[in-house]
UniProtKB/TrEMBL annotation:
PANTHER family: MULTIDRUG RESISTANCE PROTEIN MDTH, RESISTANCE PROTEIN MDTM, PUTATIVE-RELATED-RELATED. GO terms for molecular function: transmembrane transporter activity. It comes from the Bacteria. Its main location: membrane. This is Predicted arabinose efflux permease, MFS family. The keyword Transport applies. Gene3D superfamilies: MFS general substrate transporter like domains. Residues 19-399 form the Major facilitator superfamily (MFS) profile domain. The chain crosses the membrane at residues 28-47, 53-74, 86-104, 110-136, 148-168, 174-194, 215-242, 248-269, 290-322, 362-395. Keywords: Cell membrane, Membrane, Transmembrane, Transmembrane helix, Transport. It is a multi-pass membrane protein. It comes from Actinokineospora alba. GO terms for cellular component: plasma membrane.
């Protein structure tokens, strides 16, 4: 590869200034740790701890439900205390939690610990976003989030490799939670090297749970939940469909996720261009829905033909189209989240906006997979139709929320300050 091309690729993931490099390094440590644990957790808990697959699945689902509360709760805390200190505390707490997994020997202890760890883990996203909002100018936040997501996919892939190596021997399985714990400590140490950031103004009489009382903002979250269906489709619904309802060779199915991951790494930063404003982000969100609907309709075609080559080609094409939808919707979500969050309550609002992905992770697999398995071709068509409706609604919903934000912005005299 020419040096100029290599330099261009490196610039996508390695910022020129030290602050952004530190933020990227934190994301890398966190993502490797999560890659190790998420990819190796089922193997660890079934083979090392001795739990059943059903018990592990129930525990991990319970951890997901805990994020419905913690995402907003920690966002509110981040608005009221030093964000750098809070994020460091969260990573240290996670390190302790992952370390304790090595001592778990019964299902009750597993359920308690996995819910506690999940509760803390879902708090890192809004805290990180709030801290980023303090340290980085508004026009640069979406691009930096895109870089961090590309780096996350790189780190997550590395973590999968570490987990696979640990799974080679029963004696090494305990390294799965312990390695994750070490990486959380590394992330915590890196957070302490960030600057304090500028003081952020907050209203003296700020209402609690303002984000979930903001109906226009909740409307944007609801529509975004539909547009984020690509999460469930790529990870769960499409692989399940390919394995059970098509003639596609089974060995190709895991390769689809690899293809999707590489695509996101290469093109997420480029897809973030134009999403820096609410108007631009809503337009990109609308287009992401078109791509998502097209991907669903492409998969639907496989219900009409059993030819292996045609089916395989259609599914691979669908993954490409769905990957485009993914990077566009992710970029639009960052733009909408930052753009519609009041400066004095960024943590709370960004935590609430995270619910569009958290809820998709919880309810998406059962609903979307159930629809396509039960109704086949028409199931995919129905999903595409709902997505197109969401595409039409996202821009009006964003405009309404933006008007509400402008009308409710506090006057300077009403503000006090809190350290970031």
């Amino acid at each position: 590869m020419p040096l100029s091309r290599l330099a261009t690729l490196s610039a996508r993931f390695i910022p020129a200034d030290s602050l952004r490099r530190k933020l990227i390094a934190i994301r890398l440590a966190e993502s490797i740790g999560k890659g190790v644990f998420i990819s190796g957790s089922v193997v660890y808990f079934t083979l090392h701890v001795g739990l059943s697959a059903g018990q592990v699945g129930l525990g991990l689902s319970a951890a997901g439900f805990s994020g419905l509360l913690s995402s907003i709760a920690f966002g509110m805390v981040a608005d009221r205390m030093n964000r750098r200190r809070l994020l460091s505390i969260l990573f240290v707490t996670l390190a302790v939690g992952f370390s304790l997994y090595s001592l778990v020997d019964n299902v009750i202890a597993f359920y308690v610990l996995v819910m506690c760890v999940g509760f803390v883990e879902y708090g890192t996203s809004p805290t990180t976003s709030a801290l980023l909002g303090t340290l980085v100018p508004p026009e640069e936040r979406v691009r930096l989030k895109a870089m961090m997501r590309s780096v996350f996919n790189i780190g997550f892939s590395l973590g999968i490799g570490v987990a696979a190596a640990a799974a080679l021997s029963p004696r090494l399985l305990v390294m799965i939670p312990l390695t994750t714990a070490v990486l959380m400590i590394a992330a915590a140490v890196l957070v302490t090297r960030l600057p304090e950031g500028e003081a952020k103004p907050i209203p003296s009489g700020l209402r609690r749970f303002a984000a979930v009382r903001d109906l226009p903002f909740l409307g944007v979250i609801g529509v975004s939940t539909v547009l984020a269906s690509h999460v469930t489709i790529v990870l769960v619904t499409l692989p399940l469909w390919a394995l059970t309802r098509t003639s596609m060779p089974h060995f190709v199915v895991p390769l689809l996720l690899i293809f999707n991951t590489v695509f996101v790494i290469l093109f997420q930063v480029r897809a973030s261009k134009g999403a820096e404003t609410v108007l631009g982000a809503s337009r990109i969100a609308r287009r992401s829905g078109y791509w998502l609907a097209a991907g669903c309709l492409t998969v639907a075609v496989t219900a009409l033909n059993s030819n292996v080559i045609l089916v395989s080609g259609a599914i691979i094409a669908a993954v490409l189209v769905l990957s485009v939808a993914e990077i566009m919707q992710s970029a639009s979500a960052w733009g909408l989240g930052f753009g519609l969050a009041p400066e004095h309550a960024q943590g709370e609002y960004l935590g609430a906006f995270d619910l569009h992905v958290i809820s998709q992770n919880i309810i998406g697999p059962a609903i979307l997979s159930g629809i396509v398995i039960a109704f086949g071709f028409w199931g995919w068509v129905a999903i595409a139709a709902v997505v197109l409706v969401a595409s039409a609604l996202i821009a009006p919903a964003a405009r309404r929320s933006e008007r509400k934000l402008a009308a409710s912005s506090p006057e300077p005299a009403e503000l006090s300050t809190v350290s970031a």
